[in-house]
Structure formats: C-alpha cells, structure tokens
Design a protein that fits this description.
Layout (H helix, E strand, L loop, with lengths): L2 H11 L4 E4 L6 H6 L7 E4 L3 H15 L3 E6 H7 L1 H10 L3 E7 L15 H6 L4 E4 L6 H13 L5 E7 H5 L20 H12 L4 E5 L6 H14 L2 E4 L6 E3 L7 E2 L4 H8 L4 E5 L23 E4 L7 H12 L26 H11 L5 E5 L7 H5 L5 E4 L9 H11 L5 E6 H4 L5 H8 L3 E7 L4 H9 L7 H5 L10 H7 L4 E4 L2 H13 L4 E6 L5
Parallel strand pairs: 1-2, 1-3, 3-4, 4-6, 5-6, 7-8, 7-11, 8-10, 11-12, 13-14, 13-15, 15-16, 16-18, 17-18
Antiparallel strand pairs: 9-14
Helix pairs in contact: 1-7, 3-5, 3-15, 9-12, 10-12, 13-21, 15-17
Length: 522
C-alpha cells in the first residue's frame, strides 16, 4: 500500500466520501488509488474554483467535509476565491493540494511556489505531509480539524514522493469524538438580561444558528423578549419558508443596515460577527453598531451556539407554550402572459413554483431583490448565499449541494456576470446527472458595480468607465453555452415563457438552465 492509498482509505474511514478534483502530474498516484481503495466518490471539475466551491456546497448541506484535489500552487490559487467563501461560511472542508516530490523542490521547477503561504490565507489548519508512515494520522487530524466547531478549511499538502512511497498496512486510526465547548453560564445570563431589560434589543444569529434547533430557539427568544431577530447578511445556510421562524437578514447596503439597527441599546451576537459595512464609503462609518449600543457576544470560537441558544431560551421563555413567529403558507400567483420579463416577475414565479425541500443557491445579486419576499411563504427550503462576497460561487455550490442531497431539487439563482467565473460547473452537473435547475439573470451588465460606482462617489462615469461594467458586444448566449456542456437550456423573454420554462425544468430530473433576459435594476 502506498501513501495515496493510505490517504484515501483514512479519509473515507473518517467519513469523507466525496472528492471534487482537478488533478495534475503530482497527484497521479492519488488518482490511481481511487480504483484500488473503495469508499471515495470522485467528481471531475474542469476548473479548480468549481472543485473548491462544490466542496463548500457539499459541506454546508451534508454537515461533514468533502475533499478537494488540487494541483500545486497554481491549482490552489485558481480555487482560492471559493476557499475564501468556504472559510467565511465556516464550512468543514479537507483541501488536499499536491506538491513536487520533497527532493525536487530545491530545483525550483517552473511550477514551484510557496503553497503553504497561499493555503494559510484560507485555512484554519495546515499541514505538510512528510512521511507516508504518518499520512493516515495526518488525514484523520485534517478531518478532525475541519469538523471542529464552527467548521473550517483544513489543508493537507501532499508531496508526490510521500504519495507514491510505501506506507504501513495497519487499520486506519479512528476519528476522535468531536469536542463540544459550551458558553459560560454567566455569559448566557448577561445576554438574557440584555434582551429582557426593557431597552431596545436585537439578537443577531449566524452559522449553525440559522437552521434547525438553533433557529427555533432564536425564534422563541425573540417572541418572549420582544427583541428583533436578525441574521447575518449572507448566511451559509438559512432555513426558511412556511412554518419556519421568521428571521430578517441584515441588509447588504450599509445605509439600509444602519436603519435596521438604529435605536438599539443592546445587540446579542449568536454565531455572527459584529456588523460592519462591506466596503468603506466616503463620509460613512464602517462599524454599523449604533452609538450607545452595547454588543454582547453569546459564543466565541468553538463554543456551541446551539446549546447556548437553548440555555438562553430557557432563561427568557417557557418553551412548552411559546412559539416563534412563522410565516403562513402563501404563494404569489405565477406570472403569465406576454409582458416583458423582469427580475420581479422571476421572483414571483420562483415563489409560485418552488418545490418543498428545495435547496436554493442565491447568487442573483441585484436581480434578487424581490426573491426573499416572494418565497417567504413557500414550502420549507434551505437558502445558501455568497458568504465571502467573492463571486463565482453559485454554480459550484449548487453542484456540491446536489451531490450532498440526492433526491432534493437544487435551484441556482445566478447573475450573468458571476456565472461566467465558474460556468464549467454545468459540465460536472451534466456528467454526474445532478438535479440542479439554474436560472441565469441575463441583464448584460455588472449591475452591482454600476450601483457601487455611484455609491463610492466616483466621478461621473464616461463611456470608457462604463464599458468595463457592460457585458454586451457581444451578448452572452447562455443557452448555447449550457447546451455545449451537456445541459438542456432555454431562453425566456416574457413572464409567461419563464413560468412555463420553470415548470418544465423543476419537473425534469437532471440539470437544466433557463436564461432569463431581464433589464438591469436601476
């Protein structure tokens, strides 16, 4: 047994069942070992950013890590943006990066680079394997690090000679039990006092607190205390829909978020960071916490936010009787007719047609303004967002989510500019037969940057400036692009055409794409 076989066997034994890869020469022994060692599904991705984004989507939905397989420093660099998003999502992810043989590195071959420095920028745990005899332990410790609350990217650098050299044949080590750290009672008591003291207060949740028992406990706390319930702007995974506790997302625009938080005297953070604006703007503060508002941190680091919210709920609410506010089942009417298609009409169609238990991946950007309201009363579903702000996440995350959740429909709502970053994900969806329906909002512009051009106070934009934000000349043909990668596709220009296309796509197994031709917002 060689090192690569030991690595795959140990990862699989520790619960890593899927590898999204784009390998090269240094990883060929890992590739060969896939046929020798059972238990690992491998999915080829035609760009490293698809592999890392797919591993992110898988981890968000499965609650356990997938592996990546990347080729040296340049391959890691190509996947870096979606590793950044995964880091911000606290996704459990084992990132395997091949490297030159240990004795070859001194020769400074053309692909030589400082892998450790690049990996360190997105990894909560980083190790360079040095001995095939300890590779099994390295693998298990990578999985343990990735799954440590609240979740992180664990990168294992695998030199080629460590991969091809002989390794011991003993049984793989067991994965140690997950260590759970709880918030101190005094911290919970201070949070309870802040929420029930009679002054304006809000509970801001993030991470695991936006789903499951954490979200239900947060809803009970808000109902009992009268505090506002907010979640971070871009939650990794938000449960929502009819019967699910209502949580208001903090606005992306700093001016709107400031309005949401205005007047608060207490802000309790549960799995979320203290709110700041995404960028600096002339004359506007970056820290969004209002003057005179005290921030209370319920959990820190690896402390369990679910148990902390449960304890907080016990202190402020009678959980046997009090129920969180939830939306009633209600859908908008599906738009019909020959009216020109708009982003608002797309949102209403999505709200009307969304199947129960759908995983929605949202990278619609400016075109998605109407989506939250139109889908609030739809059947329960999961909503995955652009956690780190690095565009090109949607299609890969949808791919990984579909692998993690066979039997569930995945709906990817994708801006056209963002789609072009990682369009190769469609090919992987076709090859793997994944149930992903993609809607591309084709407004032929980087509309969000047109908005930001005004917000930062830049000088009036002339034709050369605006040309850098325009996606026409030529127009992108997403129908042809999708079909060229094996994904059925059609184009909708009217409300009725989109509704009909949505019904067909959501009913058909396998991947499909709808190009929704809409005007830019604003």
């Amino acid at each position: 047994m060689n090192g690569a076989q030991t690595l795959i066997r140990s990862l699989a034994h520790a619960g890593v069942e899927v590898c999204f890869g784009n390998p090269g020469t240094s990883e060929m022994h890992f590739v060969a070992a896939l046929d020798e060692v059972p238990g690992m599904r491998a999915a080829l991705c035609l760009f490293e950013g698809v592999a890392t984004g797919a591993a992110d989507g898988y981890g968000r939905m499965a609650g356990r890590p997938a592996a990546t397989l990347l080729h040296l420093g340049p391959g890691l660099g190509n996947g870096l943006a979606n590793l950044h998003n995964a880091r911000r999502a606290h996704t459990p992810l084992v990132n395997v990066v091949g490297d030159h043989a240990t004795y070859h590195k001194r020769l400074d071959a053309p692909l030589e680079s400082d892998i450790d420095a690049v990996a360190g920028s997105v990894s909560g745990w980083l190790r360079r394997a040095t001995d095939p005899g300890t590779l099994a332990r390295d693998a298990v410790e990578a999985v343990r690090a990735a799954t440590r609350a609240p979740g992180q990217v664990a990168t294992l650098v695998l030199p080629a000679d460590v991969s091809w050299s002989e390794a011991p044949t003993g049984p793989p080590p067991a994965l140690p039990p997950v260590e759970v750290t709880t918030a101190p009672d005094a911290t919970v008591e201070r949070a309870a006092a802040a929420l029930t003291g009679g002054e304006p207060a809000a509970l801001l949740v993030g991470g695991a607190a936006t789903r499951g028992e954490g979200l239900r406990a947060a809803g009970r706390i808000a109902a009992a205390s009268g505090a506002r319930l907010l979640c971070e702007t871009f939650p990794a995974r938000l449960e929502r829909g009819a019967g699910v506790p209502v949580v208001e997302r903090l606005a992306y625009l700093a001016e709107m978020a400031t309005g949401q938080l205005e007047g608060l005297r207490h802000l309790v953070l549960a799995g979320a960071a203290s709110p700041v604006s995404f960028f600096a703007y002339p004359g506007l503060p970056g820290d969004l916490v209002p003057d005179g508002c005290e921030v209370h941190v319920l959990t820190r680091g690896d402390e369990d936010v679910i148990s902390a919210l449960g304890h907080l709920s016990e202190r402020v609410a009678d959980t046997r009787e009090l129920k969180a506010a939830t939306p009633t089942a209600a859908r908008p009417a599906a738009p019909e007719g020959d009216a020109p298609l708009t982003s608002e009409a797309v949102a209403y169609a999505v709200g009307a047609l969304l199947p129960a238990d759908t995983v929605v991946v949202d990278e619609a950007n400016t075109s998605g303004l109407w989506l939250p309201g139109a889908t609030e009363g739809a059947p329960p579903h999961d909503w995955l967002t652009l956690t780190g702000g690095a565009i090109g996440q949607g299609l890969p995350v949808a791919t990984g989510a579909a692998v993690a959740c066979p039997g569930r429909r995945v709906l990817c709502l994708e801006a056209d500019g963002s789609a072009m970053y990682t369009l190769q994900a469609l090919w992987t969806q076709a090859r793997e037969g994944l149930d992903v329906t993609t809607v591309v909002f084709s407004n032929r512009s980087y509309a969000i940057l047109e908005m930001e051009l005004r917000r930062v106070g830049a000088a009036a934009a002339g034709p050369r400036a605006r040309d850098l934000l325009d996606l026409s000349r030529p127009d992108l043909d997403f129908v042809s692009l999708a079909r060229g990668m094996g994904v059925p596709a059609e184009r909708a220009r009217t409300a009725g055409e989109f509704t009909a296309a949505g019904r067909r796509a959501l009913a058909e197994p396998g991947p499909g794409l709808i190009e929704a031709v809409v005007p830019p917002i604003g």
